[in-house]
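Re: the multi-chain job from yesterday

Posting the exact lines I submitted so nobody has to dig through the queue logs.
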Amino acid sequence: MSEEQKGGDDDQIPTITIPQDEYEWTKYGQKLIKGIGNKYRSYFRCKKKDCGAKKKVEWAPSNPSTVRVLYEGNHNHQCARIDSDEVDEDAMIQANQYDLATQIFGSRN
DNA sequence: CGTCTTTGACCGGCGC
DNA sequence: GCGCCGGTCAAAGACG
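And the result, structure tokens for all chains:
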């Protein structure tokens, strides 16, 4: 029931909804990995130049709602807080662990 | 105009 | 030795 997921004739994978975090990411690749049950894996990299942090997102073609986010490396700068306030930095600052996100996020459409 | 995103192709490493 | 997979880069197109 999403604007993209129009129950029509295409069963392709539209722009999957990815849970945003406090950092900025740039998608630099997407591949279908069958080594893990035929899943889609997206590769994100920190926008910052001195930031060697990387992010990998994988989801099942049939379960675009179940997105597995893998954070790799650590940021060299402070969080790029995309929102305004909120967000417990104490618990979010740790960008070095894999997180299992299961929420829909209407990103850019 | 600038910026960002997407896709394809290429390469390296590893396994058998 | 060869094949396969994963991972990254580049370019083009589209949009604000």
